[in-house]
Structures
1.
Amino acid sequence: MSKNKTKAIALISGGLDSLLAAKVIEAQGVEIQGVVFVTQFASRDTEGFIQRVKESSRDADIDIKVEDMSEEFLEVLARPEHGYGSQVNPCIDCKILMLRKAKKMMEKENADFVITGEVLGERPMSQRKEALQIIKKRSHLEGYLLRPLSAKLMEITVPEEKGLIDREKLYSISGRSRQPQFKLAKEYGLKRFFAPGGGCLLTDPRFAGRLKDLMERKEVTAENIAFLKYGRHFRLKDGTKVIVGRDEKENDVLCSLKKNNDIILRLPEKNGPDVILKGINSDENIKKAAEMVISHSSSKNSELEIVEYWRDETEKKEISVSSMAREEIEKMRV
Ligand code: SF4
């Protein structure tokens, strides 16, 4: 198929660097097709995240597609060839997966190359020189992966060699200071982008701790991951999980995620949290979970109180318990 305009696939994250990289190449007369790759770990509110990326792309006048790679990402997460970052973030393997998908898109859309906003030395794990080399090689994009913000510090690419891109108009930014990018953002009129430095949920120590707990117990499923984003999480002695909603919104989400065997517990007047019991529905576990309802409610009474619980809402039952000691609760915290 013949075409007369050079075209590039641009990986967009909603952050400044990726938008800037796309604008730098667009300024050379290249058609840009943006793409954001999303996983279940993108944000606590994935829909909101996608919306924000779309808005910042729209403001930058970049057309963007959304690609969900959640399923394939779970395999990468379980066995990352290049290990994890400071938490459970397999950034190098994640980037390789994104770029392999971008390569397919490049071929399908008859584009000439792929661009990213990667900056040499900006991030400890995935933007070291060796890591950038590995990512390029393992994504099979050698010669076709252009990183406009650091391009002059890297090997020349095919589009530069062919004269599709003027190397002189690319940049040689490196390191963690973001001043050069902020300066360029003004030049390219970029106003709306995510705050720098944000990774996905896998870089958040609290979330990572909960995920490690699932990994150790070999309980990593899409369903269990969905719960990790909400509430406070605890493990009872036999490994049964108790999840306590922190506010009304979380209570609603947790109840909507409830599966058949899960039990919901709450105070009859609903003036406390909704609690989900996931695992073994023994009398002892139900009692512990009910005590946690009281402990996380406003009453925190040492006297007996009634807690309602059910697996099926048409068969509600009640149990009388008092609150649990704070130290005991904290010992079970995940
Ligand atoms: S921070 Fe998360 S989304 Fe970003 S590269 Fe690392 S694993 Fe992938």
Note: Residues 7-201 form a domain with the Rossmann fold fold (CATH 3.40.50.620).
2.
Amino acid sequence: MSDCLYCQHIQKKTNMLFENEHVFAMLSPQPAIPGHVLVLPKAHAPILEVVPDFVVGDLFKVANKISMALFEAFGAQGTNMLVQSGPVAGQKQNHAMLHIIPRAEGDGVDLSWTPKQASEEELTKSEGTINDATKNVGSFEREKPKPKEVEAPKEVQKEDPRVKFLRRIP
Ligand SMILES: [Zn+2]
């Protein structure tokens, strides 16, 4: 069995809410607040950035449905969807995941920061640095088509008329 705790959860279907071919959703065993849901790629990946594009798309689709369910069934007043890539971003497990946290007025969950005013110079500098690296945004990796299983034509076993004839011979 895998060393990764979350691969084990996926295998054992721990706290499972939903699964499809690529995605597994479960209640967090260490929630920020009750109803905290984790949406994970089934194939192990240490951070979201190395998850194939078509799985990333699936992760967000599932996350959005679960978020809706938290509003409707769980009575959430709001939700946060959060990805933590890297320990400095708060990532604690070595398996990529998307957190969906139901929110309520005064729930004490703190994900806030104080917005600062950016200078023109700073924006221009950041834009220049990031721009080159974003040239491939828009070219997305697609899932390779699975080989179609072609059913082998069943050989029709016709009885050889000669055999039929032979059977009559005592
Ligand atoms: Zn894993």
Note: The longest helix spans residues 53-72.
